[in-house]
Every structure is written in C-alpha cells, then in structure tokens.
C-alpha cells in the first residue's frame, strides 16, 4: 500500500530552531564515546586505533525528520542544530498514529545550501556556515590529539558538501524496537545514542594521524560521511 505523507503543522519558517511549547514527541540525542557521555574540554577518549583525543566542539544538523508506520508517515521539515555544549533535543509536533521507524537526514538539503546565510538554526553566528563556499558544515568535530600531525595537535573535521559527487549529507533510518503509539495529548520521548567510536571506524577507517584536518567538501569529507549511519541507535522510548 502506498504511504501517504502528511506534512505537520510547522513553525512560520522551516529554518528556525524548532522549539514547541507542548511537543508530542521529544528526540533526545546523547553523544557517547568509549561507552560514556561526551564531556567537552574535560574527558579524554580513544578511538579504535588507540589514538587518544579530547573534544572541544561537537555539532551537527538534523533535518527532514520522518516517522513512518504501515499506513502513515508524519514528516517534519524543521532543521535542528545539535550541540554537545548544550542543545541536545529536538521538540516535534506530530500527528497521532502508530509508527515503526524514525528517519532523518544528517545535513542540510541543497536548496538551503544555495540560499545563502539564513536565520535560526542556519544563522552563520552558529559557526556552521562556510562563507567562502556558500554552504553549510553538516558535522563539526574539533579537539586535540597527540596523534595529530597538524599544528598545535589539532583535530578539525568540518564535514559538508552538497554538489554532485561531493554530497555529504546522509539519510539515517532507525527501526523502533517497539511500536511508538502517539495519541492525542501524548508527550513521548525517544533517546538516540550517538556513538562517536563508530565515527572513527565504520564503513571507513578514519585515523587521526592521517586525517587530522578535514576542512572542505571532497573525497575525505564524503569518506567520513559514510560512517554517519552507524553512529545512531535507539537507546530508549518513553
């Protein structure tokens, strides 16, 4: 049976950082490494290649969220900027129904990338806009590692790209272990674990020693984005 796509009641501008007063569904993103929550500027972590590192910044865009069931889809067009420094939730107003999967895009679509600097989650003041490249950084990881060959032992991964073979946005699909039933007036919550260990080693291997700096669209950014899908998993549904 063909699925009907129902566009939800949106905020006035789709590019706004969505904050719903009485959300039906809250998505909470918990960033982890080595089995523990990520703490910026404090804890040290190691990747699969025994390279130790410390993080100073971790941000990424989530967009085009869609709940899907056997007979219905609920699509949310808002864009959310998740930031390990504080902003870790996405509040959604959804339709009632029974849903079995959650899909979203890590990144920003090509139309918004071509629209210049914008407001809300896409405001250049958030530090996620390449003015020189007329596009957005989809995933930003920064920190330090003794394994880095860059000056000051920096790690800077600014992953983006929306044109042709350089496209770095990725569709993420998560199957819910149990059906999510949304009734009128319900307030549900899904906790999503973001496992950074799988960023360093997933479909591709990213060693800090040879990939300390990824600062523009291209082969390295595209290679890194291939690990995005494996980073996300459902931790809890309430």
What does it look like?
- The chain has 238 residues and is mainly beta.
- It has one domain (4-237).
- Helix content is 8%, strand content 46%.
- The strands form 2 sheets. Strands 1, 4, 5, 6, 8, 9, 10, 11, 12 and 14 form a 10-stranded mixed beta sheet that branches. Strands 2, 3, 7, 13 and 15 form a 5-stranded mixed beta sheet that branches.
- Strand 5 (52-68) and strand 6 form a beta hairpin.
Helix fraction bin: under 10%
Which residues form runs of ≥5 with pLDDT under 50?
Answer: 1-16
Number of strands: 15
Radius of gyration (Å): 18 Å
Average predicted local confidence, pLDDT:
86
Please state the overall shape, judged from the principal axes of the Cα atoms: globular
Number of helices: 4
- Derived structural class: mainly beta
Number of domains: 1
Topology:
Layout: E1 4-7, E2 25-33, E3 36-37, E4 44-46, E5 52-68, E6 72-83, E7 89-92, E8 97-106, H1 110-113, E9 129-130, E10 135-144, E11 154-160, E12 170-182, E13 188-195, H2 197-200, E14 213-214, H3 219-225, H4 228-231, E15 232-237
Parallel strand pairs: 1-6, 2-13, 11-14
Antiparallel strand pairs: 2-3, 2-7, 4-5, 5-6, 5-8, 5-10, 8-12, 9-10, 10-11, 13-15
Question: Which properties best describe this structure?
Answer:
globular, 10-stranded mixed beta sheet, 238 residues, mainly beta, 8% helix
In short:
This protein has 238 residues and is mainly beta. The chain contains four helices and 15 strands.
């Amino acid at each position: 049976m063909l699925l009907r796509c129902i566009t939800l009641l949106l905020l006035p501008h789709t590019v706004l950082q969505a904050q719903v007063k009485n959300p039906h569904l809250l998505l909470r993103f918990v960033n982890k490494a080595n089995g523990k929550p990520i703490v910026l500027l404090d804890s040290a972590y190691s990747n699969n290649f025994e390279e130790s590192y410390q993080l100073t910044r971790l941000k990424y865009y989530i967009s085009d969220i869609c709940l899907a069931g056997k007979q219905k889809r609920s699509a949310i067009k808002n864009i959310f900027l998740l930031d390990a420094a504080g902003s870790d939730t996405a509040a959604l107003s959804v339709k009632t129904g029974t849903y079995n999967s959650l899909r979203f895009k890590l990144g920003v679509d090509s139309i918004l990338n071509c629209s210049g600097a914008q407001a809300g989650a896409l405001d250049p003041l958030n530090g996620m806009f390449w003015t020189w490249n007329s596009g957005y950084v989809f995933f930003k990881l920064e920190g330090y590692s003794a394994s880095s060959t860059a000056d000051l032992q920096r790690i800077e991964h600014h992953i983006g790209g929306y044109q042709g073979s350089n496209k770095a946005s990725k569709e993420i699909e998560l199957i819910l272990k149990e059906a999510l039933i949304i009734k009128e007036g319900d307030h549900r919550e899904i906790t999503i674990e973001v496992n950074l260990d799988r960023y360093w080693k997933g479909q591709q291997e990213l060693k800090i020693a040879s990939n300390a700096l990824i600062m523009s669209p291209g082969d390295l950014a595209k290679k890194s984005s291939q690990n995005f899908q494996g980073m996300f998993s459902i931790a809890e549904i309430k």
